[in-house]
Design brief:
With 72 residues, the protein is α+β, with helices and mostly antiparallel strands. The protein folds into two domains: 29 residues; 32 residues, no CATH class. It has two helices and three strands, in the order αββαβ. Strands 2-1-3 form a three-stranded antiparallel beta sheet. The longest helix has 26 residues. The chain is rod-shaped. The relative contact order is 0.14.
């Protein structure tokens, strides 16, 4: 294997692996989190809360995002 090819592989392969890890993490979003519409100051704002906290938020008037990912 030539020196140039070895150098290219030593740079390209780690870069490809790193990019695949970053892309996977970005696709996963917030692990264990849910986006909800939190009612505050007479309007809805989108926040991210623990999945365990969703029922409590829904009980006091917050809502889940609509099918398009928007708040009311």
């Amino acid at each position: 294997m030539t020196h140039a090819r070895r150098l290219l592989l030593s740079i390209a392969l780690p870069a490809i692996i790193l990019l695949s890890i970053v892309a996977t993490a970005a696709a996963a979003g917030h692990a264990g989190k849910t986006e909800i519409c939190h009612f505050a100051n007479h309007k809805y704002v989108e926040i991210s809360v623990s999945n365990n906290a969703v029922p409590a938020h829904l009980r006091h008037g917050d809502e889940l995002l609509d099918t398009y990912g928007n708040c009311p």
